[in-house]
Amino acid sequence: MGLKMLGQNKLMLCLISYMVGYFSGTVNNKAVTFFNSNTPKGEGGEHDGGVITTIVEDDNKNKKKTNGLILPFERTELKVYLEKGKKMTDTYTYFHHYMRLFGAEQPDSPKDFETLPLLHIWPIYFEAYHNHWQRHRGKEVVFMEIGVQSGGKIPLLRDYFGKGLTYVGVDINKSTKKFESADWIHIEIGSSDDPEFLAKLREKYPKVDLFLDDGGHTMNQQRVAMKEMLPHIQPDGVYMCEDLSTSWSEKFSGSKFKDSRDSEFLEKTMVGLVHRSMDWLQAGWIPGKVMWEDNMESEEMRNFFGPNESWWLEFHRTVRHIHYYNQLVVYEKGYREPVFPVKTIGDKIPYKDSGEHAKVDWGPILDRVSNYTNSEWFEK
Q: Is there a contact between 288 and 333 (Cβ–Cβ < 8 Å)?
C-alpha cells in the first residue's frame, strides 16, 4: 500500500489503516474509513470481516466514531459477504454487512432470532441504496416505501438511518399493519396504481425525503406511482424504483424481446418511462441550438411533448440527476444549476492547426496551480 507525504498526523492514520486493512478519505472535517479484520463478538458469535468504523475529526481534534459507513460511490477491496457460492462485492456497504450477519444461509447467523422480520432482496441494489441515502443518516428523515411484505427493511433502515427515521410503509396486504407498533412506523393500506389513494398519502404525509417503489411491480403501478409521487418528494430528496426487469415480463404487463426502439415499449413500460424522462432532463437541448434553451414554457416545447407527458416540465425543473443501475433507477431531486460554459484565464490554441508551438513546461504551471488551490498532492 503506497503512502503519500500527507504530514505527520495523516501519515500515522495511513499506517494504522495499513494494519487494519482499509483506508479512505481525508482527515480534517472529513470521514476516515477503516475496514476492520473482524467484527466484535455478539450474540451470533465472531463474524469475520465486516465492521466498518468511521473516524470523523474536526478542527479541534475531536474525534467521533460511527459504524457501517463508506463514502458514497467508493469502491472497496473485493470481499466475500455471503458464504454460499462465495458471493463477492467491491462496494461493501452497511447493507452487505447486514446480510453477512443475518443472511438465512450464513453459517454463523443467529439461530435464535425468529422475531427478526424476514428480508428478501436483490443485493445488486445495495450500492445504490448507500450512494443515494447516505447523506440522510443521523438526520430526521421520512422514508416512504411501497411494498412492506414481511417488514424486513424496517429494522435495516432504522439501524442504518438512526433514531431520526420515520418509516411509512404502503401495502395492499392488511396483515402488514402488525408492524405499526412504534410511533415512528406508519402502515397505509392501498394500491400504488390508485391516484386517489396516492393523493391522500400526499396530504397525510406532506414531507417525504426518500421514496422507494418496491411494490407490485406492474407497469401501471410503477408508472402511476412515479407520476403521482416523484413531484411530492422533498426538493433535496430521492425517488427510487426497483425491479425494473418486470418491464420485460408479460406477467406484469411488460413486453418481452422489446426495448426503447419500440414505441409501445416506450409508452407502456416503466423502463420506457425512464427513457422518456432522460429527454425531459435534457429538454434544454431539444430545440437544437448550440447553447442551452431556458424557455421551457414555450408553446413549441409544450407541443413537442404533448398532453400525454404533461408533467415533463415539473420533472425538468426539479430533478437534478438520473442514475440507472441494474434493475433500479434513481431520481435525485435538487437545485438545477444554470447551464452555461465558462473559461479560465490562460493561453489558447486556435481550433485550426496553427503550426508548431514550444513544448509546455508543466513544472512551474503545476506548482503555481497548487499554490492557489492548496492541493495536498504536491509539496510546498
A: no
